[in-house]
Design brief:
single chain; alpha/beta; Rossmann fold; Histone, subunit A; 6-stranded parallel sheet; 12 helices; 6 strands; 46% helix; 9% strand; IPT; tRNA dimethylallyltransferase activity; ATP-binding; EC 2.5.1.75
């Protein structure tokens, strides 16, 4: 009887495969091929840790293009459907949860795989994040009150003057992150950008970092096709069901692309006569978001960028890289 063995304990590092791939790039098909026993390129047992900032929310299935139930049965997934839409989930929460999952998965002789399209989450997991001042409840309430009375735009413009680099990474409607960036500045006198750490990969892990990069024109067309499928699958009904549960424009989960476009400026749900406009807005924002996410993962040392179009040759290339990585760590099926 064979005994499963992980890399020698003295190495002290957990091997983690990290795959950055924007929506509609083929990552679901890839993970199924490599890590599902039903896949023709099956390598070994792995578990997926979702690096998608919106997949954490329950009831938001169609608009976030979550992995389907069949795939989750074939390959266990973490950080999917763990929160209600009204709960906040930030990059620090992601790193804490992903760290726990990596240790757990590896302890069971499986390969942890961080996979998703939120580039900020992936970059932060690879490098870690710098400690910033602990939140001050009184200041936080003052900023939240200002958001209500003055609006997001006023505080966002204030942030742009103080810390334009942070502002560029925050959506103008993301009240939570706008408040937090201002709070850091008013508590410390330093911008959040100034708290950046030196770019050095976290030492407790041994990473294989793959970046899937389909041709942009093909990726954007796939994204547009994906949005059409979402509407055909009942995205409008999903949004209405969330609103019926009491969620609204300012609910953290519903600020995501695919949901925020359904509301007008005062928070009212747009009518059926606006469906085409909503659809086109989602397509536009999704393509723009996919392009932006690549900026977060540029220049990370050791990354392997793969021209990935979902062909047999593409699968074979990724399979070969992962197999060598797993063999080096003595992770076997």
């Amino acid at each position: 009887m064979s005994t499963k063995t992980n890399k020698p304990a003295e190495e002290g590092k957990i091997p983690v495969l990290v795959i950055f791939a924007p929506t509609a790039s083929g990552k679901t098909a890839l993970t199924r091929e490599l890590f599902s026993p039903q896949g023709s390129h099956f390598i070994l047992n792995a578990e997926i840790i979702s690096a998608d900032s919106q997949a954490v929310y329950k009831g938001m299935d169609i608009g976030t293009a979550k992995p389907d139930a069949a795939l989750c049965q074939e390959i266990p997934h973490h950080l999917v459907d763990i929160l209600s839409p009204e709960q906040q989930f930030n990059v620090s929460d992601f790193i804490d949860a992903a760290d726990l999952a990596c240790r757990d998965i590896y302890s069971r002789h499986k390969l942890p795989v961080i996979c998703g399209g939120t580039g900020f989450y992936i970059r932060s997991f690879l490098y870690g994040i710098a400690p910033t001042p602990v939140s001050d409840p009184e200041l936080r309430e003052k900023l939240k009150s200002r958001i209500k009375t003055e609006g997001n735009d006023v505080l966002y413009e204030e942030l742009k003057q103080i810390d334009p680099e942070s502002a560029a990474r925050i959506h103008p409607n993301d009240a939570y992150r706008i408040c937090r960036a201002l709070e850091v500045y008013y508590l410390s006198g330093k911008t959040r950008t100034e708290f950046k750490i030196e770019p050095e990969l976290r030492s407790q892990y041994d990473f294989l970092f793959l970046v899937l990069e389909p041709p942009r024109d093909i990726l954007y067309q796939r994204i547009r096709d994906r949005v059409d499928i979402m509407f055909a699958d009942g995205l409008d009904s999903e949004v209405k069901a969330l609103i019926k549960q009491g969620y609204h424009k300012d609910t953290p989960g519903l600020k995501a692309i695919g949901y925020s476009e359904w509301f007008d400026e005062d928070g009212s749900l747009l009518g059926a006569d606006k469906l085409d406009e909503i659809r086109e807005a989602i397509k536009h924002h999704s393509c723009k978001y996919a392009k932006k996410q690549y900026t977060y993962i540029r220049g990370i040392p050791g990354s392997t960028v793969i021209d990935f179009n979902g062909t047999e040759k593409d699968f074979e290339k990724v399979c070969g890289l992962v197999k060598v990585f797993a063999d080096n760590h003595l992770i076997i099926p």
